Amino acid sequence: MNDAATLPPLVEGGQINDHSQGRERVISIRGLRNQFGANVLHDRLDFDVFRGEIVGLVGGSGSGKSVLLRTIVGLNPWREGRIEVFGEDMGHLTADERSHVQTRWGVLFQDGALFSSLSVIENIELPLREHARVPEAALDDIAALKISLVGLPPGACAKKPSELSGGMKKRAGLARALALDAELLFLDEPTAGLDPISASNFDSLLRDLQRTLGLTVVMVTHDLDSLNAICDRVAVLLDKRIVAGTMEELLAYDHPWTKEYFHGPRARAAGIR
Amino acid sequence: MTDIASDAGETWLRPVDQAGRVVLEAGGTWTVFAVAELRHIEDPAKGRRNVAAIDIAGIHKLDTAGALEIVRLQKLFPDADVEGGKPEHLALIELVTKGIAAGVVKPQRMGWLAHWLYELGETVMEFFEQTARLLAFFGEVLVVLAGAIRRPRRFRMSSVVAQMHEVWILAMPIVGVLTFLIGVVVAYQGVEQLKAFGAETFTVEAVSISVLRELGVLLTAIIVAGRSGSAFTAQIGTMQVNLELDAMRTMALNPIEWLVVPRIIALTLSMPLLVFFGNMMGLLGGALACMIYLDFTLVQFFDRLRDTVYIWHFWTGMIKAPVFAFVIAAVGCYEGLQVKGSADSVGRQTTKSVVEAIFFVVVLDALFSIIFLVAGV
């Protein structure tokens, strides 16, 4: 019923109105198609992310938010289309070029995906040691800084991931994603499972880091508070495509799913009109 | 491999005299990729006193690691002011300054003697605890088995059949090939050695007794321990990591009944069948070697086998099969249940399960030899 053709016309990069303002496209996706068996998840999907913005990615369960994230970071081979990150065509990279791109982004997986055989601090030190060749004397300082930035108690440094609670794993995962001060962060449901205080601390931390480091952030989230508070733009997966815009544009957007999502009781509770 | 750090760009830190006062000029790329170089060039600056200011106007790229280095400089020269920072750089330095207040807590190190005593005590305690846990586990298995006999509905038949497919049917090719080859090898050695006494026809007895009594069942047990025992540990262990076992317990489903007992029953039923098959393949291998080296026909080999080899040689092998199977399955499941928390632990317990299973099998085999010796079979 909801065929892609029924979506109102969009401008370049799946946007309702153009917000590029001449900024560099950190991510640029054109005509992406993802298909598992007969199940088409994305079709003719266009998506742009500009430097220095925080983009929230939302969509119904099973609409392929995580798959889109996994596709961008190269964990999921795609059928058709072109994906560019930092202007590099992700489909045609040599191994060296790929590892260079990979050190410029950080990924936070849903449950942290910490290396279970390493302690928290060793998890964070691993990329520092391997990619930045940070001397031993400085390793602990930098790792401890990241741990305290994400709001973990210092006592958590020596713990193994299996000894941490879900929320702490998430923060440790974020600390690892931030280890190399990546320019681009991918976050998969960063505030899910956090208590409201930690969640809003997380939001302000992300805002601080984004401002001071000029980060670009793509986050899959269902936290309407985060969407409202820190996302510059919101990208919605609708009918296998991305519809991206500011909160105001999406509130005015004429589609049954967005209407229900942004005008539901939870949205009202989050202060979205 | 690529040198990812190579694009770090130039980084500098140098003392400059400015109208009678010393200013440290920092500039270039101050990022995590430059930390190694920064630590290197900081040293000459350390000896200096009377540093009046740190001028960071020349820094064009700064990240948290770089900001941390500036904070370190501030600590080295408490009297110096930071000058010339861009607003976003100052904000970053402030963020980092707030962040480092907490510090790190590393695990404490013990002296070697204390450590040795600690390890010794832990090993001893672990041994007693392990024994207690193992006994509790066997008890629980027996209780569930007894309950299942009283109420046959509690036998998870479909689970048993699925496991038997896994541990019996799918194991047949590898067991068959290996025992066949061992039959050929033993027969060949027999021919070679017995030839010296002109007794090469006794190769038939040599190969059939060694295969039927020991080699068939031991080889099969080792393959099964490596193949199925390890799989039991990994399956149950992974479920443990995913909290699936906790989920079962909260749903009034007993993991012993659902996961452990079907596996033990399946393996105990499968193993004699596998051993029988392995024995036959071993004999066939022996027969083939005799056909090649002694010009026997197949009928001659089996005629001699029937005439000279006592039937109890066959039964002694077969009696051991279900006992070994029970031990392998029980150890495999037990180690799976001992998994704690992480993927790391699954690997460790799997290794332990295979080593322990083979160890128990060989020890039991020795016990059986004594029993059969006393019984005269």
From TrEMBL, chain A:
It comes from Vineibacter terrae. This is ATP-binding cassette domain-containing protein. InterPro entries: AAA+_ATPase, ABC_transporter-like_ATP-bd, ABC_transporter-like_CS, P-loop_NTPase. Residues 27-264 form the ABC transporter domain. The keyword ATP-binding applies. It holds the Pfam family ABC_tran. Keywords: ATP-binding, Nucleotide-binding, Transport. SMART domains: AAA (SM00382). GO terms for molecular function: ATP binding; ATP hydrolysis activity. It comes from the Bacteria. Coiled coil: none annotated. Belongs to the ABC transporter superfamily.
Automatic annotation (TrEMBL), chain B:
Keywords: Cell inner membrane, Cell membrane, Membrane, Transmembrane, Transmembrane helix. One of its GO terms (molecular function) is phospholipid transporter activity. It is a multi-pass membrane protein. GO terms for cellular component: ATP-binding cassette (ABC) transporter complex. Pfam families: MlaE. The keyword Cell cycle does not apply. Its main location: membrane. It is found in: Cell inner membrane. The chain crosses the membrane at residues 132-149, 169-190, 202-225, 273-294, 314-334, 354-375. The keyword Membrane applies. Belongs to the MlaE permease family. NCBIfam families: MlaE family lipid ABC transporter permease subunit. Could be part of an ABC transporter complex. This is ABC transporter permease. It comes from Vineibacter terrae. The lineage of its organism: Bacteria, Pseudomonadati, Pseudomonadota, Alphaproteobacteria, Hyphomicrobiales.
